[in-house]
C-alpha cells in the first residue's frame, strides 16, 4: 500500500479518467464511510464541486446504498423522493457499493446530464472498477 496522499491522487485520476472517457459520465466521485460515524464522506471526485461532502446513512441515493449494499440505478432523478440534488443539470445517477473483504466501505457515484443512460454494462464495468480500487486502498 502507498501513502494516503498517493491513494488520493490515484482516486482522483480514476475519477477524471472515467469522466473524460464516457460522454454521459458528468460527475464521478468516491464516497467512503467516515470512520465510526453513520455517514459518508466525499474523498475524490471529478466534475463540478458539490456541497454534499457529508451524507448521512439513509439519505439520498448514496446514503441508501450505504445501508442496502446494492447497486442503485436511477434513470430519472425527478422520480426519486429520497434524493439529494447536487446540480439542476443532473438527470440520472448510478451508485455502486465498494467492498473490501465483503464489507461495504464506500461507493462510486456517477451523475449524468443525459436521461436514462446507464446500462447493465455500466454496472458491471463500475463493479470491476471498484474491485480494482479495493486493491489500492
Ligand atoms: N445525488 C446524490 C448526492 C451526491 S451528488 O450526486 C454528488 C444522492 O442523492 O445521494
| Uncertain runs | none
The description of the largest β-sheet is: 6 strands, antiparallel
Strand content: 25-35%
What portion of residues is helical?
A: 25-40%
Distinctive features:
137 residues; alpha+beta; Beta-Lactamase; six-stranded antiparallel sheet; 3 helices; binds methionine sulfoxide
What does this structure look like?
There is one protein chain. The chain is an alpha+beta fold and 137 residues long. The chain has one domain: GAF domain (Beta-Lactamase), CATH 3.30.450. Helices cover 31% and strands 29% of the residues. It is built from three helices and six strands, in the order αβββαβββα. A six-stranded antiparallel sheet has the order 3-2-1-6-5-4, sandwiched between helices. The longest helix is centred in the N-terminal third of the chain and has 18 residues. The radius of gyration is 14 Å and the shape is globular. The termini are close together. 26% of the residues are buried. Bound molecules: methionine sulfoxide. The site of methionine sulfoxide has 15 residues, from β1, α2 and β6.
Give the helix/strand layout.
Elements: H1 4-21, E1 27-33, E2 39-46, E3 54-56, H2 60-68, E4 72-74, E5 92-100, E6 103-112, H3 120-134
Antiparallel strand pairs: 1-2, 1-6, 2-3, 4-5, 5-6
Bound molecules: methionine sulfoxide.
Methionine sulfoxide (SME) binds at residues 27, 29, 50, 52, 55, 60-63, 83-84, 86, 93, 109, 111.
Amino acid at each position: 500500500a502507498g501513502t494516503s496522499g498517493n491513494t488520493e491522487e490515484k482516486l482522483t485520476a480514476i475519477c477524471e479518467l472515467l469522466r473524460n472517457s464516457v460522454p454521459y459520465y458528468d460527475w464521478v466521485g468516491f464516497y467512503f464511510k467516515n470512520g465510526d460515524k453513520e455517514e459518508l464522506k466525499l474523498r475524490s471526485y471529478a466534475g463540478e464541486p458539490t456541497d454534499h461532502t457529508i451524507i448521512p446513512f439513509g439519505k439520498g441515493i448514496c446514503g441508501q446504498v450505504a445501508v442496502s449494499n446494492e447497486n442503485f440505478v436511477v434513470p430519472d432523478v425527478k422520480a426519486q423522493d429520497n434524493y439529494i440534488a447536487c446540480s439542476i443539470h443532473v438527470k440520472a445517477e448510478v451508485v455502486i457499493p465498494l467492498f473490501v473483504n465483503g464489507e461495504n466501505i464506500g461507493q462510486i457515484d456517477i451523475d449524468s446530464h443525459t436521461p436514462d443512460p446507464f446500462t447493465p454494462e455500466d454496472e458491471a464495468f463500475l463493479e470491476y472498477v471498484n474491485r480494482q480500487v479495493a486493491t489500492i486502498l
